[in-house]
Design a protein that fits this description.
Main location: membrane
Low-confidence stretches: 1-26
CATH topology: Porin
Order of helices and strands: HEEEEEEHEEEEEEEEEEHE
Strand order of the largest sheet: 1-3-4-5-6-7-8-9-10-11-12-13-14-15-16-17
Number of strands: 17
Subcellular location: Cell outer membrane
CATH architecture: Beta Barrel
Protein name: Porin
Helix content: 10-25%
Keywords: Cell outer membrane, Ion transport, Membrane, Porin, Signal, Transmembrane, Transmembrane beta strand, Transport
Signal peptide: 1-26
Structural class: mainly beta
CATH superfamily: Porin
Length: 363
């Protein structure tokens, strides 16, 4: 009980202090912010055995969170910066990621030379890869995003613990380099992460590429992920294309996903987007979450999704989303295990359909 209560007691103590500093300006540059997003979602055939689900989900369209960030001018163009960000379940009030500040927690310096930060931070795959997801549109990933086909594996681990991240923007080009210490006794290599990427944005055109790798804690192999994508804005529309891949050297399992989509600002308040995703897996693919991994083998899946997002105000939006995914072969096991907890091993193909209605508020 003490482990459960302690983070909440700390959060309860931090919030009034952060709120006071924001309203009274006791500490210039300190900001409290957050997003609350919830949705009602119906999903058919969730487990591959024709069992449906109706649920209230947190982070329907972008994950719910609260955070504190600060920026202190040190003079000479240099600044001290920090950010603490917690994931929150808006459906049940629980903290996400089994940590108080599980989304981000870092401190560092920035200036004309770039920024250098230390802590729990997003890798280059996350910062660059999501920029070209057609359904992201700057809001962030959402609860049933088709990029989760195959078990949410294409952004590596999203965030790196014990990490050092360097970022710099030079005109239209932004680069990131990241390193995470493995902190495994007796080894400088096991458990380490290493990656980087570049994002180019000039006028209506954007292009990005990123790579990250992680050494297994036991030294058995390396997991490598990459992403490449682009976008082009024209009139009220913006087109996206992208490709992501993953290879696990220990098992020689290989995964990939390709996608294309379009966003369109129909009115000042109404934004529409839609996309198609193609996923495939090869090699010695197995389940992710079973105590004893179950071999699955090759397979593929297709998914389509559409989103209508309506702004009631600058900070409050309502949205409707619909998606359908069809998995075949070994992809059935990955798909059903991720969403239902248990892989459907006796099904050659399965189709999952979902509809979601919700709202989000930024503060």
């Amino acid at each position: 009980m003490k482990k459960t209560a302690s983070p909440w007691l700390l959060a309860a103590g931090l919030l009034p202090v952060a709120a006071l500093s924001g309203t009274a300006h006791a500490e210039p540059g300190v900001t409290l912010y957050g997003i609350v997003s919830s949705a009602v979602r119906y999903t058919s055939n969730l487990d591959g055995h024709r069992n449906d689900q109706l649920a209230l989900v947190s982070g329907g369209m972008v994950g719910s969170r609260f955070g504190i960030k600060g920026d202190e001018d040190l003079g000479g163009g240099n600044h001290a910066i920090f950010q603490l960000e917690a994931g929150v379940g808006s459906d049940d009030g629980r903290l996400g990621y089994n940590a108080l500040f599980g989304r981000q927690a870092y401190v560092g310096l920035k200036g004309d030379w770039g920024s250098l930060t230390f802590g729990r931070q997003y890798n280059a795959l996350n910062n660059i890869g999501w920029a070209f997801n057609p359904l992201d549109q700057g809001w962030g990933n959402f609860w049933s995003d088709p990029l989760y086909l195959g078990g949410d594996i294409f952004i590596q681990d999203y965030r790196i613990n014990n990490s050092v991240v360097y970022q710099r923007t030079m005109g239209p080009l932004t680069v990131q380099l990241d390193y995470g210490a493995g902190e495994q006794p007796g080894s400088m290599v096991r458990g380490t992460t290493l990656g980087g990427g570049a994002l180019y944005q000039q006028g209506p055109v954007a292009f990005g590429v990123a790579y990250d790798q992680r050494k297994n804690d036991d030294g058995s192999g390396t997991v490598r992920n990459y992403t490449v994508g682009g976008s082009y804005a024209f009139g009220k529309a913006k087109a996206f294309v992208g490709h992501m891949g993953r290879r696990e050297s220990a098992s020689d399992a290989r995964y990939a996903i390709a996608f294309a989509g379009l966003g369109y600002q129909l009115t000042p308040a109404l934004h529409l987007s839609g996309a198609y995703y193609r996923y495939w897996q090869n090699g010695n693919v197995a389940t992710q979450f079973q105590d004893v991994p179950v071999p699955l083998g090759s397979g593929n899946a297709d998914s389509v999704a559409v989103v209508a997002d309506y702004a009631l105000s600058r900070r409050t939006h309502v949205y409707v989303e619909a998606d359908a995914a069809r998995a075949r072969g070994g992809a059935v096991g990955r798909e059903t295990e991720y969403w239902a907890g248990t892989p459907a091993l006796d099904v050659d193909s399965t189709t999952r359909v979902g509809v979601m209605v919700g709202m989000r508020h930024h503060f």
